[in-house]
Amino acid sequence: MTRLFNDPADFADEMVDGFVAANQSRVRKVHGGVARSTTSPEGTVALVVGGGSGHYPAFGGLVGHGLAAGAAMGNLFASPSAQQVTAVAKASEHGGGVLLSYGNYAGDVLNFDAAARALADSGIEVRTVRVTDDVASAPTSEAHKRRGIAGDLCVFKVAGAAAERGDDLDTVTAIATRANDRTRSFGVAFSGCSLPGADEPLFTVPEGRMAIGMGIHGERGIAEADVPTADGLADLFVDKLLTELPDGVDAHAGQRVVPILNGLGSVKYEELFVVFNAVQRKLTAAGVVVVEPEVGELVTSFDMAGVSLTLFWLDDELEQLWAAPADSPAYRKGGAVPQEQVAPETLAADEQAPVTPGTEASQASAARVAAAITAIRVTIDDHADELGRIDAVAGDGDHGIGMQRGSTAADRAAQDAAARGAGAGSVLAIAGDAWSDKAGGTSGAIWGAALEALGRVLGDDQRPSAATVAQAVHAAVEAVLAFGAVPGDKTMVDAIVPFDQVLTDRVAAGDDLVSAWSAASAAATAAADATADLLPKMGRARTHGEDAVGTPDAGAVSFALITAAVLSTVSVPA
Amino acid sequence: MTRLFNDPADFADEMVDGFVAANQSRVRKVHGGVARSTTSPEGTVALVVGGGSGHYPAFGGLVGHGLAAGAAMGNLFASPSAQQVTAVAKASEHGGGVLLSYGNYAGDVLNFDAAARALADSGIEVRTVRVTDDVASAPTSEAHKRRGIAGDLCVFKVAGAAAERGDDLDTVTAIATRANDRTRSFGVAFSGCSLPGADEPLFTVPEGRMAIGMGIHGERGIAEADVPTADGLADLFVDKLLTELPDGVDAHAGQRVVPILNGLGSVKYEELFVVFNAVQRKLTAAGVVVVEPEVGELVTSFDMAGVSLTLFWLDDELEQLWAAPADSPAYRKGGAVPQEQVAPETLAADEQAPVTPGTEASQASAARVAAAITAIRVTIDDHADELGRIDAVAGDGDHGIGMQRGSTAADRAAQDAAARGAGAGSVLAIAGDAWSDKAGGTSGAIWGAALEALGRVLGDDQRPSAATVAQAVHAAVEAVLAFGAVPGDKTMVDAIVPFDQVLTDRVAAGDDLVSAWSAASAAATAAADATADLLPKMGRARTHGEDAVGTPDAGAVSFALITAAVLSTVSVPA
């Protein structure tokens, strides 16, 4: 929700003032909005855009060289007045006439049309191109009634570039019209936004559901469905837009297209990139060629959670104009220094580290080690959600995912190394390296070091005895302690120290490995449970100390789970 | 919350793939993250940054000419592994050594330090600069323990620019260190974020409250307070940071400073600009000179609602490096074509339209018209919240604010015109123009046209009779009807048509103006209430038709309120 404002009635004015203060090298404030603060050649066309506020970077963020000459900035979600549009156009024009372009909404049409009449009355040549890209807002037969959403950017960008290269008003208008004809968008929303000072969101979507085709002001969509996966959303978008091809576009013939994946506010970049990964894959599979895409926030609605995909079907001239330089507060193209691309490399295939072949006895042990690591992966997969939940209480909730990534990579590496004849020690070293590499974070580094220490003691020569296994575990514990935690800090150390002690004691007392391991694992489980009583001392967890009392440490719990899971592999005769 | 993902364990990998697909002209995927896809001169220093994912544009978004040479991209909120950092550094370096720079978090220190050792072992010169800008995370006496937040950008930007101009490794390191020493940040959070696949947010802040000094992973802050106004937040930020001046910086001596107002995810641009407006004002008042600020999302935490202010205290060299060109996916400086600024103009003072002086009789009427417009402003102010709430049911919730802006502007213009001797007709025309100009949207245009039509009939000559007033109202109604709505559409037309009829009939029947107006106003109120039973037909409201049944139309209600409010001015003898 919108939280930061002073008097809600002053919000739009203060927003414009702050925007101008932050972007003085590109824009200056004029009555009703902003115009470029940079000079433009006399006689060129001025592209004037605009609409309600609340959609940044639309519309003021798109004023600058190669894009708009000015933007009329209305109140929140309300069209600028005819006076505002007129004043911005007069301040922006430089002798070549004015192209008014904006999304097709009733209030905007009313006020921009009135402004067009006022401008014409004062002797300024004016044309208008309304953006109508949203396929959900009207059927194909009434495409001119569709509203404008992120497709605004396509139309503004090529019109701005055409104006910048000196095209006359009729040519710029024709290009903008063609760009609009070749632009289609489709969007979904997960939750609404609230206006400054409002107690409630402007509209809502039930949790876990999405409104398909909902507009950027909450205009009702065409259907509602469960929120799909990222890939599922990409399917929905691409499939729909491939049935909405503009006249004359054949999507299956190497046709070039600009995709714009637009976030409406609180769907964030990381999610957009995951969706775009699938969009790019699907478009490529459909035979179309993706050109200079945009993934980010281009037309927003405050913090509305929503996404749209726009496809801008290029022709040669439109592609040239799309690629032309632009330099506005929120949209820039063309670096200051032309960059040379590195030669396309053959991606170095993941080099497999050469393995030290083990003796026959050690290869037998290696098979058990590899089985143990599979057991680790399986138990972590089974408990990943639970570990994440526990970790979120005191840490950052990533323990489940981190352990999952680490154990998955370790398992793959271990099976591969064992298959290539590595001894037990080498299998553990290779698995440890893969674990720490893929898991990252502190726990990844710790588990990597632990497996590596285990492997160092087991070696590649013999089938280890119970005593050797106990020594190896002790070495692994030492490696973990080297990271600095001590018992009582509420970390995995609280579980591994008793595990080590019981295992060493029982093996020394003559127990077989299976019963010694079983007893040690029980001790680790009890110790992990007991961490619930502790106050965390380390790292980020420290900052949430009190909350964490009552919940065990995720690292201690995952360690205890792992000791239990590998028991079956300890007990299988070689 | 994070909604769009496939398998949460694959999120970070798919995110990197999508990011690279969207930005191929600048970055290429390498093991562990990304490196530039553009060439760099042999022998220059490679700045390698990195950290956990979930903070876009940190860190991959900052790779490109003039900024980082590569970025290690860890899992969500988890440090990249030492192997990842090492691999990215090896892929990014081009003979001049590597500067590792990253925010100061335990996991990152662990893994980057291990990578530094591995790189040194393989013969690559390495230095490290940790960013420690967050003043909330440790006292001044332990400034080296502070964590890094949006100040990352300051350090990376100047280090990248120094590397690009060919400085050697020790020089780049010294510059990065100096930048970090001169950078301070302070932040607040209003709500937490949730990781992909998590059912609950990682942390929460009570509604209406903010955590002061909370970290970007939800690390506990130093205090909690009610959410302030935008100006109040600017005060909090600037006051705190002016007490945290780096050694040798005197904030009151024309010292130059870069402010960075950073949104964490769902606090949006419009809000940030409103806050920045106050930040800029306060800094200027404190005597410091604001240089090339940044307002936007530079270091985020998914959709966390939070804001931070960073102050980067410049010296001559740092300013030069800050201003140098950069061209990364998320951060670009320096346009493709150098732009010339327009000459600073004396802002044209708002030209006062010359008023037609009214006759004495008309000036007396003008005073009553001006009083009526004041009464309109007062009643709209009193009911603005209620009108917004009603409008949110069927429209976009802006009716209250729009009417408020319009009536406030109209009142100011009317008082001014009346004071300058305008007749009643001119006062109404001027007020109408101000109303439609400032309110914008459809309702602004309608009210502007209505006042203008009223004024046209009343003229500037005589004191109008009851019959003239009724004729004027009828003309205003005609002007409103010209916008296209008809009775039954659930618009203000449903209230103004009965108002017009009753007024005309009662005046024709010989009633005095006060009782006729009073009866007409009662009819308008009843008609406005009755719009609750109607299904809206017009504009955006149409899309929420069913929801709107049971709630009256906001435009009809505000019209009825206005007719009641001006009754007292109708009844005061001239």
TrEMBL record, chains A, B:
Q: Which Pfam families match?
A: Dak1 (PF02733), Dak2 (PF02734)
Annotated keywords: ATP-binding, Kinase, Nucleotide-binding, Transferase
UniProt xrefs under Gene3D superfamilies: 1.25.40.340, Dihydroxyacetone kinase, domain 1 (3.40.50.10440), Dihydroxyacetone kinase, domain 2 (3.30.1180.20)
Q: Which PROSITE patterns match?
A: DHAK, DHAL
* UniProt source species: Curtobacterium citreum
MF (Gene Ontology): kinase activity
Query: Upper lineage ranks?
Result: Bacteria, Bacillati, Actinomycetota, Actinomycetes, Micrococcales
All residue ranges annotated as the DhaK domain in the record: 7-331
- UniProt domain DhaL: residue ranges: 367-568
Its protein name is Dihydroxyacetone kinase family protein
Q: InterPro entries from the xrefs?
A: DhaK_dom, DhaL_dom, DhaL_dom_sf, Dihydroxyacetone_Kinase
Q: Does the keyword Nucleus apply?
A: no
